[in-house]
Amino acid sequence: MLPLDRQKKMNLKAEQLSAHLKSKGLSSIYIISGDELLLVQEAADAIRAAAKLNGYIERKLFHADSKFDWNDILTEADSRSLFSNKKFLEIRIITGKPGDKGSKALQAYLKKVDPENLTLIITPKLDRASTRSKWFTALEAQGVFVQIWPIGVHQLPQWLNQRLKQSNINVSGVALNILAEKVEGNLLAAIQEIEKLKLLAPKEEVTGEAMSDIVADSARFNVFSLVDSIVKGEAQKSCRILHGLRSDGTEAAIVLWAITRHLRIIFKGSEAIASGENIDSALLKLGVWENRKTLVKKTINRTSSVQLQQMLKLSGGIDRSLKGLGFGSSWDELTTLTLLLCGVQSLSSKNLRLALQ
User: Fold this and answer.
1) How many folded domains does the chain comprise?
2) CB of 42 within 8 A of CB of 14?
3) SS3 label, residue 62
4) Is-contact 185 287, C-beta < 8 A?
5) What is the spatial distance between Cα 112 and Cα 105, in angstroms, rounded to a whole number?
């Protein structure tokens, strides 16, 4: 590992990280930023695996939300490990904005952290102001910044083909397009379909017809049908699907991720309209498929910026509850969030009863 004062600013794409870890070894600090949950998770897993191989057996995890005490990180930097001289600190900045206290704490942390320690910081996609902030530029100057970019509509077939080849699955061009249309940019759904193909695909090239049969929609409720129903504003159906997911033992965190991903698209689309940007161009940048644009526009039209901010705040509260940092029933709050996104503006007992019928 390079000492902090000898490291140089290094920015990597997600696909470059594996080669970096093999050829350069571990750096002291990594920052992973992005909204593609699958790619963020894979990048973090690669760093964790490399850390384990290099003797980092003790890992401390911090969830830095609005109530987080940043002194905990400074205290951890000063403490000695009982098991090893090497310590791995993972800091997840939930909103991507540590605030004034967090900014100062991170800068102070850099001045006192042991060069033998490994620090991994994970954030959502950072806006331009955040990447110019003092806390980020200080981290970037001493570590490796891994920017996770979303897989665009035109990039998805190539990304899918690469993943299929890694799984030794050969597909025709028609079959590849069918798969791309099925997953509609949802990378987690894509990975699920590829896992299914590992079991069911023929050893020879997968034809379009075979692909259609294998990836046919299941009658069983899933998180993707939930989001589809929410986009259409189908409150009653969405609540039934949500109940089905809960009954099937689906983790609330997965449901929250799917809903929040859609919510962020709506929020960013709404911001684009407010700033005078062409909505079709904005939705294309956000990875919204052509056959979903009309529905997404309707969702934007039926929700105000104030309502969207309230829903994002509710989403953050559910996330904290799932981490044991809040109170209330996560599934009840997910129902509230679902109804709000469907356009049920008043959550009186009467409206809730009607929606759940």
Assistant:
1) 3
2) yes
3) strand
4) yes
5) 11
User: What CATH code is carried by the domain that includes residue 13?
Assistant: 3.40.50.300
Alpha-carbon separation of residue 11 from 7, 16, 22, 117, 253 (angstroms): 12, 10, 16, 20, 30
Give which of 189, 161, 162 is closest to 177, Cα–Cα.
161
DSSP β-bridge partners for residue 123: 33
What residue has token string 């939300």? 65
Q: In this structure, how many other beta carbons lie within 10 angstroms of the beta carbon of residue 39?
A: 20
CA atoms within 13 A on the CB side of 64: 26
Are 18 and 85 within one domain?
yes
Residue 308 included in any domain: yes
252's enclosing H/E stretch is helix 252-274
Q: Are strands 29-33 and 144-147 parallel, antiparallel or unpaired?
A: parallel
Segments forming the whole domain that contains residue 89: 7-147
Partnered with residue 29 across adjacent β-strands are 119
Q: Average pLDDT by consecutive 10-residue portion of the chain (357 residues)?
A: 50 90 88 90 93 87 88 83 75 90 93 85 91 93 91 89 93 91 81 85 87 63 78 87 83 86 87 82 76 80 84 88 76 90 64 41
